[in-house]
# Entry
Amino acid sequence: MTEPDRWVRVGAVSEWTRGRGRRVEVGGAPVAVFWDGRAWTAVDDTCPHMGASLADGRLLGDEIQCSWHEWRYDRTTGTCPVRPWARVRVWPVRIEGGAVWLEPPPEEPPRDAPASPDDPEWLRWDPKRYFKGGGSGS
# Structure
């Protein structure tokens, strides 16, 4: 028995602008998809730093730069070169029949290292604490 096709069509190639990100949803998960004229990249859309949309950011060589605070993530591994604990999932992309297809990754990315207790509060930001009625944590 073969595994069912997990690939999801997220749009036509013509819907992307070279060098710009575009946010799509796959199974309720927001994904930032970029095309630089040569290669396609798809990563989780939410920046682990403070929750900005990475689709609003830009490609800088082999990195995606967040538009809010300029944190960068390697476009092939999803890892932030400055803080290895800050990473986003990288989604497989294929182009077929003039369409962009994504394959949902099987699991969340592993956290190589936890945030240091010496990091300032803003760096240890926890989206669960502030989003979806999480309150201020007090």
Remarks:
- The radius of gyration is 16 Å.
- The chain has one domain: 8-130.
